Amino acid sequence: MKQHFSKFVALALATAIGVPFMYANPNSKFEEKIKKLKSQVKPVREFRGEIPWDLSAKGKAINHRNGANTRSAVNEPDLQFENIGTYDFLEAPDGSTWFYTAEYEKEYYEVSEWYTEQIIKAFKFTIYDSQFNLVGTIADEITPQPGESKVAYIALDPAVTSLFFNNDSNYEVMVYIAMNTSADFGYEVNYYNKVYSINGEKDENGNDICIGIMNGRCVDSLNASSSEENFYFSFAEDIYPDMDDFEFDDFIDYVKSVKTSVKVYGKYSGDETPSALEKDILFVSMPGDTTEGIYLISFSEAGVPYYVFSFYEKPYFVDPTGMATDESITPDNSLVIETYTLKNGAFELISETNIPVETPDIDEQLAYYFYSIGSVSWKNDIDTKVNGTLNAPAYIVARDYVLASQPDDNTPSYFIYGNDGKMIRTLAENTDAINLLNSEMGDQPHAMFVTRESYTEYAFTFVDLYSGEKLFVLDQNNNEDPLTASCQRIKGKDGKYKYAFEMEYDDLDDDSNDIKRIAWYNQDGSLDRIDYINMGKDVMYAAINMYPECLSPYVFDTDDAMEYAVLVKRAYGNTTRSEFLVVDDNGERYAHFSEDDGYGYPVMFSILPGEPNSLMMVYGDDYAYNLYIYNLPFVSTTGVNEILSSNGSVEKILNYDGENMTANGCFIEVYSISGVKMAEGYQSVSFNRFNNKGLYVVKLTDSNGKTKSLKMAI
């Protein structure tokens, strides 16, 4: 066991410092490991949450083969972008989703007959709003600073501001740049963010003028805006002490000195802008297994920012170098959770929680418990409503059980802890998987925990994450007609949730069509119905997209029938290829995307919230992407087609100022996109409690009983 453990600890350290594990002479390799760590390139926003409407249904076709013409009812896109090398999404100040494409000017150097290096010399980002209207472009040349050799990574930071960096009316973006350095500088990576004003000043060469530089990696942005724009940005830098100050005998002290320094900034006031909040976290005290834990979570309440840092009070291992001088974890340790908020113009520590780190009671082999927050529902792991308050939050804590002999395997359990560090309730123990499910605004976060009941059978347990209440438990075997763990829940017009499961086995109809089945359960665990989705013939594999944006019956059309977005791998002779379908439970196809469209092979598609919603279909070839935009819904049956922008009005009847909606002489009703009534009132409705941004249906009834319905984005 000693050999297993020594390898495990060394692996943990090597992972922490960003290098592959190797058995090596420690006297000669420590410095090399540190150099490799410093040379690793970190992408933009390591804690950026997934874009919730991204379907992530990726499938690359194998070869190209023409087939039968099965074009969808949607014949032509509403908008298209062709020959795009890079694209991504942005977060606008009003919470809407923007989009950008990137072009790079490159120089090519032949390193050998087998390898040609590409050097980025200049960039151009083209930015579009949620309606794909052109906002503007940012273009500039890249000038390496002394010691820098080339661009290692470049992208736009996701956050778009308007008044953070200056006070003009232009939007602002940060270009995140990672630059490699030469051997004389230890092959380190320099990180900085160049700020540009869209449609701002140009230099004599037509390049955009940089209006500011923020050093480090932007690991978090917080939009705490209410009546006016209010952003906070967090930047991290990894700090290494000088190797020359340490001898091998005290290398443990060196490892324990490496840290990440986080600085939070309010409004920018020039290169000497002071940070509003600073926090240093040692690498060896990072939460979780000390390599991948989320150490920073931010949120806002009524325009007030809150920052939550988590870390171990002491280095997790007595010897974090992997040299196994001491194979134990540090005794009397705890996961520390600190909460800061802005008071009287300065950040103050308002809460500190210490959760004791326990050691598994097992004699056969060394084992560990790793603790973290944020890994279940990210920012919603902080409970300020049920068991905690803003000044004394409670937490959803993940505890991973890991054996030293099996460092790549872990068994997580989940608990609710109070602000005093005491466990309130167990959510689930020894789980195989967790599926975070959709929650409408005002409801608790909710999850499905998967636990093994026997060697071949699993149970699905549905739990409200703040109260810990278990709603029901399903046997995955489902009377020998098993369910998969691909599950989602949607609230219906009656205000109750229904749970959708993709069933494990498909059916065949009399014409040899493959039928995908979706089982819907009520929130008391009783079966509601099974939907049958006709996918056509020769299906090798199929998967239903289970994101809530796709399971609403009102996304692709506006009637009550449910439509499904399906990824299909279909056999074509000796090959397969990917197709995307939108089809309802009556077999009607609303869209079909494949290589037959002539745009390339389908890569993925995304639902983009906006006014109206859009479907972005992405095709690829060997060199670039083609993006095709389709307005949603494909079919409208209710006449709800008009859109109210966040700053506009319809016929000067309805107005929205960001907090309140008014319509003189009218009764106002607000519904979620799935038909649930969210608010009502005569002449005025407050949106202060609406936590989720998105589309809502507004119904106006005037004094004569005449009604008018429209969609509104908040």
Number of strands: 45
Rg calc: 27 Å
From the spread of the alpha carbons, the general shape counts as globular
Q: In what range is the share of β-strand residues?
A: over 45%
Overall average pLDDT: 82
How far apart are the termini?
57 Å
Helix content: under 10%
Number of helical stretches of at least 4 residues: 4
Low-confidence stretches: 1-28, 50-73, 637-651
Biggest sheet features: 7 strands, mixed
Structural class: mainly beta
What are the defining features of this structure?
714 residues; mainly beta; 5-stranded antiparallel sheet; 4 helices; globular; disordered N terminus
Structure notes:
- By secondary structure, this protein is mainly beta.
- Helix content is 5%, strand content 48%.
- The strands form ten sheets. Strands 39, 40, 41, 42, 43, 44 and 45 form a seven-stranded mixed beta sheet that branches. Strands 18, 19, 20, 21 and 22 form a five-stranded antiparallel beta sheet that branches.
- Strand 40 and strand 41 (654-656) form a beta hairpin.
- The longest helix is centred in the N-terminal third of the chain and has 15 residues, at 2-16.
- The protein is globular, with a radius of gyration of 27 Å.
- It starts with a helix and ends with a strand.
- The model is unreliable at 1-28, 50-73 and 637-651 (pLDDT under 50).
